[in-house]
Amino acid sequence: MSQSQHPVALRIEQRVGGATRLLATVMCLPLLDGIFPALVLAGALSEPTGILEVGLLIFGGSATVAVVLADMDGSPREQAKSVLLVGSVVVVGAVVEAALAPTIAGFLDLAVFERFAGLVILAVAAQTASARIGDYLPRPAIIIALGLVASLDPAGAQLAIQFDPELMARAAAAALVAVAFALHLALFGPWLRDIVDIDRFRFGSAVALGVLPLGLFGLVPGDAPLALAVLGMTFLFAFDPEDSVADFRSGGEGDDESDGDEYDSVGPASADTVAEEDHAPWL
Q1: DSSP3 helix / strand / coil % (the chain, rounded to 5)
Q2: Which range (85-89, 142-146, 157-161) has the least confidence?
Q3: Which pLDDT belongs to residue 109?
Q4: Is residue 67 very low, low, confident or very high in pLDDT (cuts 50, 70, 90)?
Q5: Cα–Cα dist 159/135, whole Å
Q6: What is the average pLDDT value for the chain, to the nearest integer?
Q7: Which of 36, 107, 150, 268 is the most exposed place for a label (fewest CB within 10 A)?
Q8: Can you spell out the DSSP letters for 140-186?
Q9: Where does residue 261 rank: exposed (0-12), middle (13-18), buried (19+ CB within 10 A)?
Q10: 157, 107 in Cβ contact below 8 A?
């Protein structure tokens, strides 16, 4: 079972098993359940800040952090190879779905569909924050299907297939942001496991996801990096070097063998123990 206690990761791990498969499913999930194409159609990639937000919060996000830091085994180099393998699939999938987006857009009233895209992000944010809340919410794919039905506009449909190379490049950039983020986690995992509170980061990223649709709803300017600002604050609040400081002190003083033994274990097993002990009360 996933040791991260992340609601999304736990649910997926029960079906796929294995850390690499789990990472692949988590990072490809926005492609499979329709969240990414919905955001593409809603214009979420129209600004550079939107590309960063989609890459870090949709493809990356707290589930990716939880899987890489708490569930993946092996050396940083081995984990990096797994991330690059998964990342290649994510980039190709993002480009393919972005290539189909202009054709699909011709059949929809985008003003209506953008509202449903915002509702999808809110639902994902709620599921990330709490597994109990997620049990009462419809699946993202159902919300997107309802949005497609509600925004269907056959009058403006064009049967010809359309390609937008610029949009495809933006989609690839968003996926590459997520891959670079996951690669950073894999390479610096031994250090990050000691200073990052995964559950605290999960809750903060859920808040960042929750403010992301504000631009789609027109409540804030579309180019305002509000979600990125919240994500930056999340990194600060998730920074918890207390264990590392205790490790350094116990190793330097050498007068407390019990403290030293507590930090002899390095790697995923230590992360598992920390995740279980610091399990968030809102789950």
Answers
A1: 75, 0, 25
A2: 157-161
A3: 83
A4: confident
A5: 39
A6: 77
A7: 150
A8: HHHHHHHHHHHHB-GGG---S----HHHHHHHHHHHHHHHHHHHHHH
A9: exposed
A10: yes
Number of neighbouring beta carbons within 10 Å of residue 219? 12
Q: What single-letter amino acid sits at 125?
A: A
Residue 194 burial class via C-beta count within 10 angstroms: exposed 0-12, middle 13-18, buried 19 and up:
buried
As a whole number of angstroms, the distance between CA 19 and CA 162 comes to: 38
The token pair at 10 is 């736990």
- High-pLDDT (> 90) share of the chain, %: 22
Whole-number Å distance between alpha carbons of 140 and 24 = 18
Number of H helices, E strands in the chain: 17, 0
Query: Hey, what are 82's tokens?
Result: 């797994």
Taking the C-alpha atoms of residue 157 and residue 123, their distance in angstroms, rounded to an integer, is: 29
Pairwise CA distance, residues 192 & 205, whole Å: 17
